[in-house]
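Progress report, Aim 2. The chain analyzed during this reporting quarter is listed below.
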Amino acid sequence: MRIHPTLARTRPLWRAAVLAAALLGSAAAMAQATPSGMWKTIDDNTGKPRGLVEITEKNGVYSGRLVKTFVESDGKPRVCDKCTDARKDQPVIGMTIVSGLRKTGENEWSGGEILDPENGKVYKSKMSLAEDGNKLNVRGFIGISLIGRTQTWEREH
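Predicted structure tokens for the chain:
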């Protein structure tokens, strides 16, 4: 079978375009394979959004700060009046509530801490990212992971 000369010239370009698109799609999927980004926290009792946490990475260590709350207040900025560390009486908005997490497995990070600004308690923490990169299971616990609770946060796009 004979191929038309124009088709013969464009076939390699077509293959290159398909390959480039596949590689870009893979790169986008890989870029989402970290917990870095903006996450909507969901109350595990009510199922309603509570706030937005921005997770960032520096030198392989992940931390997250509360950038917005959806919890109604009396108009005054909320402070962590129950905190017992340096965050005592500091504004909750802008506060680092997740710290010290390092990658420990495929889509898993642990070794960190999480603060519950409602009660001022600091818990050990770990998190795992769903395969689609849009859900983050964040677990806070005392001692061993079996004694704790997990919230599923949703990625904000």
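The chain has two domains: 1-31, 34-155. The longest helix spans residues 5-31. These observations will guide the mutagenesis work planned for the next reporting period.
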